[in-house]
Structure prediction request, 676 residues.
Amino acid sequence: MSADLALIGPVLAAMLTAATPLLFAALGELVVEKSGVLNLGVEGMMLVGAVCGFAVTAQTGSSTAGFAIAALAGAGTAALFGVLTLLLLANQVATGLALTLFGVGLSALIGQGFVGIPIPDVPELNIPGLTDLPVIGKALFGQDAVVYLGLAMVPAVHWFLYGTRRGLILRAVGENHAAAHALGYKVIRIRFLAVLFGGAMSGIAGAYLSLDYTPMWAEGITAGRGWIALALVVFATWKPGRVLLGAWLFGGVTIAQLHVQGLGIDIPSQLLSMLPYLATVVVLVLISRDIARIRLNAPASLGKVFHPDA
Amino acid sequence: MTLLRLEPRGEASRAMVYLTPLIAVALTLVSGFLLFWAMGFDPVKALHAFFIAPVSSVRGVGELAVKATPLVLCAIGLAIGFRANVWNIGAEGQLTLGAIVGGGIALAFYGEGGWWLLPLMIVGGMVGGALWAAIPAFLRIRFNASEILTSLMLNYVAVHLLNYLMHGPYRDPEGFAFPESRLFEADAVMPLLVAGTRVHLGSLFALLAVAGGWFLMARTFIGFQIKVIGLTPTAAGYAGFNQKKIIWLTLLLSGALAGLAGLGEVAGPIGQLNPTISPGYGYTAIIVAFLGRLHPVGILLAGFLMALSFIGGEAAQIALGLPKAITGVFQGMLLFFLLATDVLIRYRLRFGAKTAPKPIAGRAAA
Prediction:
């Protein structure tokens, strides 16, 4: 086998892992936005999930417990956002920003005792015969359970939104909350549940970074991935399948940035580190320029405050 | 039926506009008390070390002004944008670019300076910040791309750019590979305003920005257009106000002010360029803008309060070994409480179920 071909397997595997946190966070936010709520606090919820998951795994030795707590912690921080924006009618943009600033501080506070502490590896799938397949074996059959869960969430979210009655109601709430309210649907309760789901997904996304991808705890470990996930939702024009595409794209950019350095191409590492952020801007521009398409796909009530008596 | 519900006020409560920031501060202090207690510190001592001890000396009060300067400069610009629903989250990056461009001028003319150097650096810093903010403005107007996401992404790009410069072109040639620039010469440093403190010329610019921001919003037609566009974009459209012009104006203005803040840091208290020129001033400025009710005078007061959270964090770290991260937690909590209590401006709390007219079943459940 040539050296180039031998590289494809690890690169593909690394791309899938790099895409996983984005996939979770973006799918969660997609459901939130479909219900008509814009939660800009993804980065904060990811950080809280990352640190709580890490702390629990470091204490118990169980990464499963870590992921479970991370999901709960993410949902908990999201509940704060829900109370403020849905019950107290606060501005969603401002509250989302507050959630991120709060998450950055809180995670640093919780995590101060966990910097540099080792944790057990997350077990990876190993199917004799398949995992050993050349090139694609490791990428397709040698990942840990969370990667597969992330992939499974794509059809699951799609099925929920477009194949179930509850999904239809959630979308109706996101398109026109006044009409949905008039039909007797509990707008605030539905949105709150969506926000909690988004928080849990962000929490898992963060924990994937601290438990699996890195794996360690460091302040600001998410490095803007929460914001990239928000951009991915727009890029995907609020469609779950396209979120997967976008996550892979960004996973690819992240990995490419590492491998360019490995190939000995002489670009300073600091400039290469800009790539994912620049790519986000470019992708956002390409998709947003088609205003008609954004209008057609964006939930019509996105970011608007709802008060039943108003 | 719910015990507690929100009833719309006939008109927004003026009193609550001024009261809710105070309520939010009080709630933050109470939460801080509980937080310190839960962490095993003596809460009274911790709060004293955090909020009172640092400002018990002339030097301490001076430091307060030093830290408030970049916060106020950034927040004035951001607030004008927020008024027009232009969400510039990129003050941190614009501040960084101001430092890179303005500080770069200081390094470029190293050893050849004169009285003209500092003014040139100030202009350079403002232009650098404004150009960085021009990117999200252009992308929003030309391509409809959300300025929230683009301006935020550019923060990360700016930090990496600074890092690259500090490890490459900007590094002190005699500096043993440390990622720091040369120390600026006397011609390239902001003059001090108060003896015995580090209060520098930048603080005067911050006060000018407060006055200018107030004049722009309260006394000019552009300020009026900004407010109308923010409150009712449709009405602004009927009135023929040019929304694109306002997006350009607010982003360029806030970028220039953030750039000035960044230049003020490197030519002021820091005195050189290094990779950590800002402990997150650009982000904290968002909180300052909201806490100050998007009003220049309010921002001045809020700037001092948030400056105290930075100094207090450092002081408490030294005095009691409190983790520095607590600053961020305080800042986040304060903004949360403010946003939560702001509901009282337009709604009043009512206890018990609605009496008349009888609500349709389920309507008051929210």
Summary: The two ends of chain B are 9 Å apart (CA to CA). The longest strand of chain B covers residues 4-8. Residues 67 and 307 of chain B are 5 Å apart (CA to CA).
